[in-house]
# Entry
Amino acid sequence: MIKVTILHAGINHPSPFIHSLCLELDKYEDIDYEIKPTLPHEKSIYNKHILYFHRLKRYYDSNDMASGEKFIYDIDVIKQLGYKIAWTIHNFLPIDRKITEVDEYVLKEFIKRADVLFTLTNKMKESLKNNFNIDSVMHSIGVNTLDGWFDKETINLDNLPKDAFLITFVGNVAPYKQIQKVIDYFNQICNDNTYLLIAGQQAKNIDINLNINNDNIIRYDKFVGASSWDRICEKTNVFINLYDLNYENFKYGFFPSNSVTLSQKGIKIITPNSEIINELLPEEARISFNFNDDKTLLESMKSSIKQNKKLVFDVNNNISNKYSWAKTTQIVVESFRNLFEKE
# Structure
């Protein structure tokens, strides 16, 4: 039996990633997992015990080097107590604040101590090897299991005209998503029958004020659960999914998670042309623009509206099989088992 402690703050309400992973872990008889927010300080009662990290930023103060050094010291002590260390790198660096030398220090020291590192894309795996000469296991993710656990309420789009053309953004609202730019361009090209939906919560720890002064822009500031996704896909003509590719916090790479969900919806996505995003979205799903030329974004929005229809693509089985939580969890579990095979 392998004991796995998933280090995560949301014990009662885990993230969609943790929730979906745990539903699959339940199927493995040799895996006994728990979710805890704090690090252990004494030897485990289990012979095989893995601490499985996700967000390192919870364990140190980014403005206090002593705090970062204390966290790394704690990891050294934990390893001496017999624990194995695993980390799924959602993003190399925190993306919700300015990066400090403490963040860089923790990243570089932690990855040297981890027994297994997981990445979510091949581009992230390449970056880890190229920048730090460290190997990793790419496990990707499945489409998040947004069951009733996350459905607090359902978006209402019944007031939209039947022939409305709806451009939709879904995801956390943060500066690096460049939503204000989308709003500004929409204001230039919209007509009475064109609407923009911005659906998603404001990212935690980020202060952003969107300048919305258009009755044809709909702001839904709640988490988008399964039932809301269904309503949104029913009404949406084209999705838009932006990232600031020059954002300093993305210097080693990042994971555009919503691209995975959008790849399964069969509705085309206006998105920057990027190797990171292109790995996740099939060519037939993308309406790509040149990130370094804002005119191409504007033209992509214009051309989509001119078609005045739902812009769709076929979701084939290859895409669905690629993003499977069963496959992701199998890779994670096999990697956990491999940690103890040599002992």
Summary: The CA atoms of residues 225 and 261 lie 12 Å apart.
